[in-house]
Amino acid sequence: MPVAFKENLNFATAVGKIRALSARLFRASDWERLLTAKSTRDLIRLLIETPYGRLLSDSDNFDTIQRKLVAHLLSEMDEIEKISPEKEFLYYFRYKIDLGNIKRVLYGILSEKEVSLYEGGLISIDVLERIKRGKDIELLRALPYPWDILRDTGDEPVFWTYHLEQAYFAGLIELSRMKEYYLLESLLVTQIDLENLKIALRIKTVNYPERYRAFFYEGGSVEPEEYKRLLDVPLESWRDSEIVERLGMSDYLCEPIVLEKEIEERLIELLGVSKYTAFGYEPILDYFFRKETEHKNILFIFSGLEYGLSTEMLRSGIRGL
Known about the structure:
This protein is mostly helical. It has helices at residues 12-22, 28-34, 40-48, 62-83, 91-111, 125-134, 160-178, 182-206, 224-230, 242-247, 256-271, 282-306, 311-317. It is built from 13 helices and no strands.
C-alpha cells in the first residue's frame, strides 16, 4: 500500500538522536566477525568488543542475554519517548511485551510451571503476577483492550494464544488508523499477509490439525478465506498461485524457516522508506525494528552455536545480512 509520511517538526530532536543510534547498528562486516566464533564463549568475547560490551559478561547464558537485550531495547525506547512528541507508534513493541507476558502466564497456569515476565509493556507486571500466582485462568478474560478479545471466545484456553495474537494486530491497526500512522499500518498489513502465508505453509508441511485452519489473522490485504482455499491445492502448485505471486514469495516456499527470514527482510525493506523524512515518527519505528532484528540475530547465532550449526547455516539465518 502507498505510504504518506506524517510530517511533524517536533520530531526533529528525537530523529536526530535516532540517526546517531542507527550508526551503531551492526553492518555486514560486524556479522562476519561474529560468525568466526567457534563457541558461545567466543561469541560473547566478540560481542564484548562491541557496544554490547557494557551489557554482557563471560558467564551469560541464552536466557540471561535475552533478558539483557530486551532491557537494553526498552531502555533506549524510554529515552526516545522522553524527547518524542508522540509515543503511541511504539506500542508496536510495547504490545509485543504484553503479548509475550500474557502467553507466559497462560502457559504457566496450564502447565503448572514457573514462568518469568518482562517489564516494559503497558500492562502492570503486578497485575499479571497476581493472575499467575492465583492460577485462575479466567482472570485473563478481564484484561484491558485489546486483550479483552478473550471475553467473547468460547475456545479452550489452549487456543487462546491465537486470539491474543489477533488482538495484537487488530489493536495496532486501529491505533495506526486513528493516529494516521500510515507507515505503521502498511507494516502491519504486510506483516499479516506474510504471517498468514507462513501459517498456511506450516499447516501444509507439518500436517497441523484441521482445527488450525481457523487461525489466520484478519486485517491484511488478502482475506483469510483465500489462504484456506490455498490449503486445498497441492503445495507444488502454490508457486504459481495468484496469492503467492501477489505477495512476491514464490521463491521462498521450500520450508517455513526460509520464508520466515524473507518475511523479516521484506519488512525491513518496507521500513527503509523512513530515510526520506527527518520530521516524523517513521525513522524511530524503523530503528527499533532493525534493533530488535539485530537482537534476534545475536540470539540466533548463540543458539546455533549451542546446537553445533555450521558457519554457513548460521550465515543463511541472519536477517538483513
